[in-house]
């Protein structure tokens, strides 16, 4: 192989290597951000479940109160 063609190949390999490094960095950043979203979503999911169960209990208590006061049709 001629000396000039070796240089061209090395330049292309260097460009490819730089692009792969940039992709790795982007991938690392995406994984970090996804991890943060998963943590936040997990916390929101727990809070929603807690609120939902509290609302269910309040609804049951309200139903009992309405029945005692004869405010609802049976």
TrEMBL record:
Among Gene3D superfamilies, the record links this protein to: 1.20.1260.80
Q: Which residues form a coiled coil?
A: 13-68
Q: Give the top-rank taxon of the lineage listed in the UniProt record for this protein.
A: Bacteria
Keywords in alphabetical order: Coiled coil
> What name is this protein filed under?
Cell division protein ZapB
Organism the protein comes from: Chelatococcus sambhunathii
Which taxonomic lineage is given here?
Bacteria, Pseudomonadati, Pseudomonadota, Alphaproteobacteria, Hyphomicrobiales
